[in-house]
């Protein structure tokens, strides 16, 4: 395996490892904060972390390229996470976890249309079917898949928003900019779009709340881990593996969530769940052959 592909696979694996636990952290914070309050706070933390890691301005050669950052900030940061957080407030974490895994399918379709990418092979689509079947089995544990249809619909829209973000990141990756600075630049626009939303939905986060240890720990985990580190790693994975190939790693998110639910929350591990995890891994392998 070429070194650049190995780095891409490792980066994508790190992302799904962390992202697989973010549903739990977000659910905990939703007890005290609204979706926009969580969203804005975590990305401000992420932006500050990236700025401390790599200060300096991002300079693009053409004005058109700046719009790629605007679109990435809106689709992958503001829109995706806003839709996901509102979905979590209206349906189960398991439902959201399963639905957002259809993003690789959206990504493949859009990449074919917008980036003129090669048509995905049959193994990609078979892998999609097998992986989603496995995710459904995982999601249905203990009847967890029964949720609110509005939240489920928002999760579908979130999957589409992430697909658009992945395509824009592919375009940005071709500019050969510093990866950390480029990620931070997209964060800037994402936060910019969140500010008016905070005015509409309300923003009442006070320092005293953030200093409470459980709340602080969850925000730091989401802000530094899931935002700053994972977005840089994901952008690296997309650059090294390509838009579609990296996106199939999202199938693993429910499997990671399952693992930590069994380990930390002592949820039961049944044969059906094990079968679902196996199908998801097989689907990932099939789609990765594309």
Q: Which helices and strands, and how do they pair?
A:
Blueprint: H1 3-29, H2 35-53, H3 63-90, H4 93-99, H5 103-114, H6 122-139, H7 149-173, H8 179-201, H9 207-210, H10 213-241, H11 243-247, H12 253-264, H13 271-288
Task: Give a description of the structure.
- With 290 residues, the protein is mainly alpha-helical.
- It has one domain.
- It contains 13 helices and no strands.
- It has helices at 3-29, 35-53, 63-90, 93-99, 103-114, 122-139, 149-173, 179-201, 207-210, 213-241, 243-247, 253-264, 271-288.
- It is globular.
* CA-CA gap between termini: 15 Å
SSE string: HHHHHHHHHHHHH
How much beta, percentage-wise? under 5%
Radius of gyration over C-alpha positions, nearest whole angstrom: 18 Å
Structural class by SSE content: mainly alpha
Q: What count of structural domains?
A: 1
Membrane topology: Multi-pass membrane protein
Organism: Lacticaseibacillus baoqingensis
Main location: membrane
Transmembrane segments: 7-30, 36-53, 65-83, 95-115, 124-141, 153-174, 186-206, 218-236, 248-266, 272-288
């Amino acid at each position: 395996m070429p070194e650049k592909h190995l780095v891409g696979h490792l980066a994508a694996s790190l992302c799904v490892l962390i992202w697989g636990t973010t549903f739990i952290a977000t659910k905990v914070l939703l007890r005290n904060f609204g979706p926009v309050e969580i969203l804005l706070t975590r990305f401000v933390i992420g932006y500050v972390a990236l700025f401390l890691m790599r200060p300096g301005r991002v300079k693009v050669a053409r004005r058109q390229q700046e719009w790629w950052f605007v679109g990435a900030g809106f689709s992958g940061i503001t829109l995706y996470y806003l839709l996901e957080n509102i979905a979590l407030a209206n349906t189960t974490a398991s439902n959201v976890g399963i639905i957002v895994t259809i993003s690789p399918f959206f990504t493949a379709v859009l990449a074919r249309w917008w980036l003129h990418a090669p048509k995905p092979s049959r193994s990609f689509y078979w892998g999609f079917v097998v992986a989603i079947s496995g995710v459904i089995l995982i999601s249905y544990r203990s009847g967890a898949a029964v949720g609110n249809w509005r939240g489920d619909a928002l999760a579908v829209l979130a999957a589409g928003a992430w697909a658009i973000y992945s395509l824009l990141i592919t375009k940005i990756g071709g500019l050969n900019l510093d990866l950390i600075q480029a990620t931070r630049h997209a964060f800037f626009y994402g936060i910019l779009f969140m500010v008016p939303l905070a005015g509409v939905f309300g923003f009442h986060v006070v320092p005293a709340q953030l200093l409470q240890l459980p709340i602080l720990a969850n925000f730091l985990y989401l802000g530094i881990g899931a935002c700053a580190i994972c977005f840089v790693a994901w952008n690296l994975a997309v650059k090294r593996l390509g838009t579609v190939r990296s996106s199939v790693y999202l199938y693993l998110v429910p499997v990671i969530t399952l693992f930590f639910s069994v380990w930390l929350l002592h949820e039961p591990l049944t044969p059906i769940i094990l079968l679902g995890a196996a199908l998801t891994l097989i689907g990932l392998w099939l789609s990765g052959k594309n």
